[in-house]
Amino acid sequence: MTLSLAACAESDDGGGGGGGAGADETGPIKIGAVLDITGAGASLGVPERQALELLAGQLEEEGGIDGREVELIIEDNQSTEDGAAKAMNKLVNEDEVDIVLGASRTGPSLAMRPIAESTETPMISLAANQAIVEGSEWVFKTAQNDRVVIERMIDYMAEQGWTTVGLARDASGFGEGVAEMFDEIGAEQGISVVATEKFAPDATDFTAQMVNLRDAGADVNVIWGIPPAAGLAQRAYDQLGIETPVMQSHGIGNQVFLDTAGDAAEGMVAPLGRLVVADQLPADDPQKEIITSFIDDYTAEYGAGPSTFSGHAYDAWQLAIDALSEEGTDPQAIREHLEGVTDFTGISGIFTMTPEDHAGLPKEALALVTVEGGQWKLVPDEGN
Amino acid sequence: MTDLLQLLFAGLSQGAVYALVAIGFVAIFTVSGVINLAQGEFAALAGLVAISAVGSGLPLLAAVVLAVVSVALVAVIMERLVIFPVKRMTTLVSLILTLGVSTGLKALMLLVYGPNAEGLTPLTPGGFSVAGVSIRYQELWILLIAGLVSLAVYWFYERTLAGKSLRACAEQPVAARLVGISLTKASLISFLIAGTVGAIAGVLASPIYFTSWESGLTLGLKGFVAATLGGLISVRGAVLGGLLLGVLETLTAGYISTGLRDAVAFLLLIIVLVARPAGIFGRTAEARV
After folding, report:
1. How many angstroms separate the CA atoms of B153 and B242, rounded?
2. SS3 of residue A98 by DSSP
3. For residue B58, pLDDT beyond 80
4. Which parts of chain A have pLDDT scores under 50?
5. CA B238 centroid distance within chain
6. Which of A46, A202, A204 faces B116 most closely, judged by CB atoms?
């Protein structure tokens, strides 16, 4: 799956100036991407691929980076850890890419991390779990950390006066450590998890988990997963007639969730990127312009709007292009550039990276969103 | 008590889908000794055909009929192209051949329908609640139609001359040919039945359990386990095996751990193959190995 972009100028005038001494300054700049295009993560990986292909096409029209061709190589990891590691190895060793984007989900991203670290290849993951970048040197990420998501959710729970939480979480990397983090962050407000249920990312029947949540009798239940599983779980929850309010994670920001959950999603609350409620943002929102123009371009190309996941891909691509055009292809220079990113306005939020924080998004990057009449709706809340 | 009933009901409706897939395995195996690993793909394909037909504006019932007919046709074509030309068919050869077909069908579905999982519109949307147990109308449809289809297939194989002559092909191929039963025709009919039953399972399950290009894999494996519980040659055993598997899975998920859910089928398979290779419901006299 290779998308090759023709160079507009053959001349090689040294790129964006100041490429490191050992950097390869000839031939195309290569960006690799490892995405969950098939398998359980397909509802994430497909829009991410579409966003990257759109952006690569736009860059080609602009003539690449300072006239240098940019080649995008996309690999499908089939939503598996070993697939991700294999794809990462291929991109680094065979294709010799300058930077890698992906993977779409936590598990595959974690499988790629040691390869990025040992081969000193800059990598920007699109997944959520903080463990992907914790203590990393070469790995960055664009999806909001699960920690800031949980902070946002705890704020809302405290506002509502809820103290006990029932959790049904994804059994894969995305849900790993979530219950512990709820307890840790919620401790101050006296909020704790009283029941934890798990489901496989490709599960289809959720009766057992939801029955157990019902019996736990918590103030609020949290479903932590990605569509379609998250949507089916929401449906099972509604179908069992459980009246307790339900919150979901930022893993559900796409149309697939609305389609799978249907009416059952009405009233559910989730912290999501602003992309899904772009039309409801105030005119002075600093992200409004960039989000709106991405939505317009994406919709014009694919006939349907983008998801928050395509937003994560957009941000990773822009961060990569920014670093490549400023620093050339020297990996160390790219790494240092990414680490110094300050107030970089993206789709998922405004990024400020530091050597300690390779995710760069605060909890303000998330808006509390509900579903009304099958549409995403901004929740009136002090943080929004 | 409410929980137990709820779990039992969820398990039965899931089990009914396994049962239908299992009948497909049995229908073919009893006639030609072929284990058709593409059985799960029949269900997935039917679901996807129906979803895309509804998406392009066809009424639900027409879409369902279209899906069942086209998958039955696929099964028949498969038999003619892949099974019929092989002169000396053994169960091992059949496994390899049908695994190939299954992989091919999966790739084709991915290509045509894309990687996303989707659900078909339910026959009757919504549901109701009895004594705290929530029931979806679609689940009732699954149980009802699965029951009728099982009865029809059972009646065909056990009570009609045509069905009996099909089974004769497997038990005494030479004698069957001597009395004028066409082996090739029998194999074709068995694939037609398996395709139809698999397709019905696919369109019934899709509204609740969703369909994607790869959902046939799990469904096929579970169906195979269910069929094996019944010794692979008994329609009644396959149905009971499917229901038992569905219920055990949900109870395991509810009372032990959701992580063990998918392990149940294979634990069961190992136990049965070791302890009772003829199936837990089968009489040992029925063993044909």
Report:
1. 15
2. coil
3. yes
4. 1-23
5. 9
6. A46
- How many whole angstroms separate alpha carbon A228 and alpha carbon A49? 18
Amino acid (1-letter code) at residue A88: M
Task: Report whether A365 contacts A148 (CB < 8 A).
Answer: yes
CATH topology of domain A146-280+367-378: Rossmann fold (3.40.50)
**What is the pLDDT, as a whole number, of residue A133?**
95
Residue B277 reports pLDDT greater than 60: yes
- Three-class SS state of B59: coil
First to last CA, chain A: 40
| Among A11, A94, A120, A29, CA closest to A317 | A29
What lies within 8 Å, CB to CB, of A18 at 6+ separation is A326, A327, A328, A333
CB-based contact B254 A207, cutoff 8 Å? yes
Give per-residue pLDDT as tens, B196-245. 999 999 999 999 999 999 999 999 999 999 999 988 888 999 999 999 99
What pLDDT sits at residue A9?
40
Name chain B contacts of A241, Cβ cutoff 8 Å: 129, 134
Q: Which of B14, B116, B214 sits opposite A256 (nearest CB)?
A: B116
Percent of chain B with pLDDT over 90: 67
Assess whether the region A29-144+287-361 and the region A146-280+367-378 belong to the same CATH fold: yes
Q: Compute the radius of gyration of chain A from its Cα atoms.
A: 20
Which helix (H) or strand (E) is A256 found in, with range?
Answer: helix A255-261
Using a CB-CB distance cutoff of 8 angstroms, which residues of chain A are in contact with residue B210? Answer: 204, 228, 232, 260
> Beta strands B133-136 and B127-130: pairing type?
antiparallel
In a domain, B110, yes or no: yes
Strand B127-130 relative to strand A220-224, pairing: unpaired
Amino acid at A48: E
Q: Is A104:A45 a contact under the CB 8 Å cutoff?
A: yes
Q: Is residue B48 a part of any domain in this protein? A: yes
ipTM of the complex model: 0.82
Residue A228: closest CA among chain B residues belongs to which residue?
Answer: B117
DSSP string, A25-76: -SS-EEEEEEE--SSTTHHHHHHHHHHHHHHHHHHHHTTTBTTB-EEEEEEE
> Which residues from B are below 8 Å from A200, CB to CB?
258-259, 261-262
Rounded to two decimals, what is the model's pTM?
A: 0.84
Task: Choose which CATH entry (2.60.120.10, 2.60.40.770, 3.30.2160.10, 3.40.50.2300) describes domain A29-144+287-361.
Answer: 3.40.50.2300
Sheet holding A375-378, edge to edge: A192-199, A164-170, A220-224, A246-248, A269-272, A367-372, A375-378
Mean pLDDT of B71-85: 96
Task: Please check whether residue A242 touches B, CB under 8 A.
Answer: no
Joined together, the tokens standing for residue A234 give 């929401």
Our CA-based measurement puts residue B287 at a distance from the nearest CA of chain A, in whole angstroms, of 34
| A6 CB-contact burial (10 Å; exposed 0-12 / middle 13-18 / buried 19+) | exposed
Measured CA angle at A147 (ends A210, A165), to 5 deg: 30
Structure tokens, B12: 């039965």
